[in-house]
Amino acid sequence: MSNTPEPSNVSPAGDFIVLGTIVRPHGLKGEVKINLTCSGLERLTSCKSLRLVKNGKELKRVSVMRGFVHNDGDVVVRFKEVQGTEEAESLRGVVVAIPSAEREELPEDHFYIDDLLDMTVENTDGRSLGKVEEVMEGVANAVLVVRANGREVLIPALKSIIGKIDLKARKLVVDLPEEIDEQTAD
What angle do CA 123, 171, 160 make, to 5 degrees? Predict the structure, then answer.
């Protein structure tokens, strides 16, 4: 596992892997600003089967003409299939996704975020901490949000903390340092 799981999010309807969400139009030619949940603009531009998806339904297939990283960290993209500011405006909140069946194989010890969601999390002594309900992007690494019985534990997605991920058993074993022990959780 790298210091952060491969950042791709849960699909809106189980059939897609979300790479980002369109925030707003940008410019006058139909460009859109996208808040990415994938590893960067290169990932978006390298996909051959991008789809615009709203409420789990595919709106259209798109391809990136050009794009750049905005100074706030989001990206601005011009899709060949989006014409003008009115169409770009109508895409607010639409997700940019790929079909689940077409997601790339990851290197060993790398995982998609949606593979980690709903996994049972145990401490090294076998005590259950709950289930992964969310993965937040942090400055240095992703953070797993684990909840159970009204309690929440925030676990940095680091090799030094996450000992074992068993996708088949849907179980994640962690070695929590004292400062984020489950006893200090909210």
Answer: 50
